[in-house]
Amino acid sequence: MSAGQIAIALVIAIAIVFGIVKGMERSAKRRLEAFLKKAKNSPVSLENAKYGTVEMSERCVRVKGKKPGIIEVPWNAILRLVAYKRDLWSVDLICLGIVFDNAGKEMVLEINEEMVGFKCFIDALPERFPLREKDWWSKVASSAFVTNMTTLWERDASASAPIASDETASG
Fold first, then answer.
1. How many Å apart are CA 90 and CA 12, to the nearest integer?
2. Has residue 166 been placed in a domain?
3. How high is the pLDDT of residue 33?
4. What pLDDT was estimated at residue 161?
5. So what's the pLDDT on residue 47?
6. Which residue positions in the chain have pLDDT lower than 50?
7. Are residues 15 and 95 in the same domain?
8. How many domains does the chain have?
9. What pLDDT, on a 0 to 100 scale, did the predictor assign at position 28?
10. Domain presence at residue 162
């Protein structure tokens, strides 16, 4: 849930608990239950274009963040995938660090659950990478205020890292 969604849910919950709005408890409870059901049943409920977009092609993953510009990372330049959680005080944010080779320099591109296309990207990962853990999401998401950094995939150390072209990371 985004911070705004959580704030709305908290206001409704407070109204229910303290009966601030007399006679509205049942209505507020129904709205809260409907809101939470929708959020739970919609894996893309957090995605919002204002936080950026993640797109995939046969050649690369393309990310447009809050800042102007687009970053493209060829699939064969990816060295490691690391999932973790950021503590944003009132909520946690599930993130994925894409560590890649850019002309011999290791770079990290972070994407997160609030970016449009994140869910599709996460769902497609097992098709492109043999992930170490299948249930990594629940491992990363559990325990508030803990980063839970988890390496999902890492290029075999014996394989040479690909050298990225000049257009690997533009933006």
1. 16
2. no
3. 66
4. 44
5. 86
6. 41, 160-171
7. no
8. 2
9. 63
10. no
pLDDT of residue 168: 40
User: What integer pLDDT is reported at residue 134 of this predicted model?
Assistant: 87
In a domain, 122, yes or no: yes
Sign of CA dihedral 159, 95, 147, 139: negative
Tell me the Cα Rg of the chain: 19
Based on the domain organization, do 135 and 108 belong to the same domain?
yes
- Start-to-end CA distance of the chain, whole Å, equals 29
Both tokens of residue 101? 């080779």
- Structural domain range at position 141: 49-154
HEC string for the chain = CCHHHHHHHHHHHHHHHHCCCCCCHHHHHHHHHHHHHHHHHCCCCCCCHHHCEEEECCCEEEEECCCCCEEEEEHHHEEEEEEEEEECCCCEEEEEEEEEEECCEEEEEEEECCCECHHHHHHHHHHHCCCCCCCHHHHHHCCCCCCCCEEEEECCCCCCCCCCCCCCCCC
Q: Is the domain of 87 the same as that of 37?
A: no
pLDDT of residue 116: 95
Residue 148 lies in a domain: yes
